[in-house]
Amino acid sequence: MTALLEIDGLEVSIPVAQGILRAVRGISLTVDRGETLGVVGESGCGKSLTALAIMGLLPPRANVVMRRFTFDGEDLANVSEARLSELRGDRMAMIFQEPMTALNPTLTIGLQLTEVLQRHRNASAKEARARALDLLSRVGISEPAARLAQYPHQLSGGLRQRVMIAMALMCGPKLIVADEPTTALDVTIQAQILNLLRELKAETGTSLVFISHDLGVVSRIADRIVVMYAGEVVETGTRANVLGNPRHPYTRALLECLPRPRSGDRGGHLGAIPGLVPSLVGPVAGCAFRTRCTFATPECAVANLNLVGTKAHATLCRRADELWGALPRG
To answer: How far apart are CA 162 and CA 169, in angstroms?
Structure first.
């Protein structure tokens, strides 16, 4: 069975005052049907731009190049904006990080939900309202009929995010891209949203691209994980392989930053990655993480690398085999 989403060699560059910002540098992604792909990395590593590129929502000044982009067997690399507009909200949908800015503050929740089904499926107002009520109930919102008449500012952050999830599900999409959907929520609501996404994915069979800066959150929902740094994929593989046997120093550093409460460990230092993410304006050679890496050698500053490994586990680190042993091939 072919993958639902395949992207090969995605590059996003943006002109800025200092030159050309190479924000996304030749990444490749695949999402299988019914799979959750977790994309993780620090702020500014290119995660959100990758999500917007998938949805065709990058600003006009962004230059997008890719060798291959297919969705559900259809080549989208050079399709028109009209075709992408037909797909967005219908067969692919997005959950944005901050629903207060993603939802229109001047329209009721009901109008924003029903518009999706009416536009893409030519549903009647009655059919769209019934679908909206059903989905609001399924995402755990009480008194859904009353919520339809409310405006976004009348709902809490957790409820607004549930509305965004319901909106994404209105047309039963095959793919949902969730861009840091729990970042602005407290930990209790965050856990509820993660459980909700897991349940809905299992129920509907929808594929999910889940983007976060928090490897701990991604570990709770993803089947496979992509780790990004400075616009590149530095490690990818199954959740068990990436978390259980990390082979890139950046992935290992992220894991060391996760809080691990232990008895008698009060007052200890939290993990941190020293240094700063390098500038991506202009050409970038060698390993972008080398200035923050304790394993770096002079060779790490030379020619760019390619991911080495398989779909189950691959890394961009030239010293991975030397430091942690070779992976089985095949």
So the answer is: 11
Sign of the C-alpha dihedral, residues 62, 67, 73, 79? Answer: positive
Position 5 confidence tier, pLDDT thresholds 50, 70, 90: very high
- Per-residue pLDDT of 141-193, as tens digits, reads 999 999 999 999 999 988 998 999 999 999 999 999 999 888 777 888 888 88
pLDDT tens per residue, range 124-135: 999 999 999 999
Q: Rounded distance, CA 12 to CA 135, Å?
A: 35
Contact 88, 171 (CB under 8 A): no
